[in-house]
Amino acid sequence: EPVEIELWHAMGGALGEATNAVAEQFNASQDAYNLTPIYKGNYEETLTATIAAFRAGEHPNIVQVFDAGAATIIGAEGAVIPAQDLIEQAGIEFRDDYIPGVANFYADADGKMVGMPFNSSTPILYYNVEALEEAGVEPPTTWEEFEQIAPALKEAGYVPMAQSHLPWIFTENFMSRHNLQFATNANGYEGAEGTELLVNVEPLKMHFTKVKEWIDAGLFGYYGTGWGDNQAPFENGEVAMWLGSSGSFGGLRQSADFDFSATFLPYWEAVTEEPYHTFIGGAALFAMSGHPDEENEAAAAFFEFLSSADPQVFWHRETGYVPITAEAYETAKEQGYYDEVPQAEVGIQQLQGRAGEWNNGYRMGFYVQIRDVMNREYGRIFSGEATVDEAFEIIEEEGNRLLERFAQTQSG
Ligand SMILES: O=P(O)(O)OC[C@H](O)CO
């Protein structure tokens, strides 16, 4: 009888189908282990369910946790076995060709990999090819260019742009794209104590001032805070350009009945002459403690399988999440995938862009709740209930209070 293990994940729709397919491939590749993937709702719901299950001692072997929840799960005492330890304890050699941004994001202060990178993404700019042609414009490289072309798209009957998740794209990746420090203590990596947000700063406030002006002028669409809220109006052709996850590529190919393409996340030339690479997004898999050795071995075998080239390339091609190892990226190139579908390479190219001091990642506990504060305050800016200055003061204050509370949970 194979050893049974469970994976809780947040991959719905086309992503859920691809997750099930990867699990089936693993199960078919050997007879010792059997992995059952279970969909637990969106990222926030999956993390909440996991924490509740951990308290009740009913947690799964492996859980998928998104970037924003990484510090919370890593900081939950005794909850997680670092992926690198799990793999080495199972007698498997730990590979060292993870692409740098991926390895950093889920590593501890000593560089040990705690989370197993799985679905790694980055925000990119998708565009409706016909809409841009109609308006006679090219996709923008910078926000300055966006300001120049947006009126023509509006004129042609489109909402020029929308984006999928404000804190992710217009805060976290705003910081990385411009190499701006995001939090003290080296973006939080040096420890929870004393870590404070550095978002109440001119470049970010300038950006939100602009976005509010664009919304008021009908040059930008804001459809809500839900993960899918801003994707739907792009899919139905109302919005011409959409900032979204590279991991949405596979789903869009299934659902969009128009020709679309993709390019890099714009940056402000006024803030940086050249852009920097963005943070790794998406989620990683965490092995949870408290299970028998044979189940931990099964989890290690699954992690090893996931990093090998074939499942990696399959997953990348099906979903748009980036290849996480150099080997998988090379394999996709050798297969001619990017000659066939050049837009599929945008995410990985962007992640391998210019390195700076502040764009390797961030580590902030209770960051999921900080995102809620941001979403609420950004909504208040757009509705005119709060000025940009007021909103950022509140984000700074409430955010730092959450960081302080998290630090208290870490000091024992
Ligand atoms: O939509 P995903 O899976 O690429 O994730 C985007 C963000 O990184 C999640 O916080």
Word description of this protein:
There is one protein chain. It contains 19 helices and 10 strands. By secondary structure, it is an alpha/beta fold. It has 2 domains: 175 residues, 3-Layer(aba) Sandwich (D-Maltodextrin-Binding Protein, domain 2); 188 residues, 3-Layer(aba) Sandwich (D-Maltodextrin-Binding Protein, domain 2). Strands 1, 2, 3, 4, 5 and 10 form a 6-stranded mixed β-sheet that branches. Helix 1 runs antiparallel to helix 14, helix 4 packs across helix 13 and helix 18 runs antiparallel to helix 19. The longest helix is centred in the C-terminal third of the chain and has 23 residues. The chain is globular. The termini are far apart. The model has no long low-confidence stretch (mean pLDDT 95).
Q: Please mark out the parts with pLDDT under 50 across 5 or more consecutive residues, or reply none.
A: none
The structural class is alpha/beta
Q: How large a portion of the residues is in β-strands, by DSSP E?
A: 5-15%
Helix content: 40-55%
Separation of the first and last Cα atoms? 42 Å
The kinds of small molecule bound in this structure are: SN-glycerol-3-phosphate
> What is the H/E order?
EHEHEHEHHEEHHEHHHHEHEEHHHHHHH
CATH architecture of the largest domain: 3-Layer(aba) Sandwich
Radius of gyration using CA atoms only: 21 Å
Large-scale geometry: globular
Query: What name goes with the CATH superfamily of the largest domain?
Result: Periplasmic binding protein-like II
The total count of helices amounts to 19
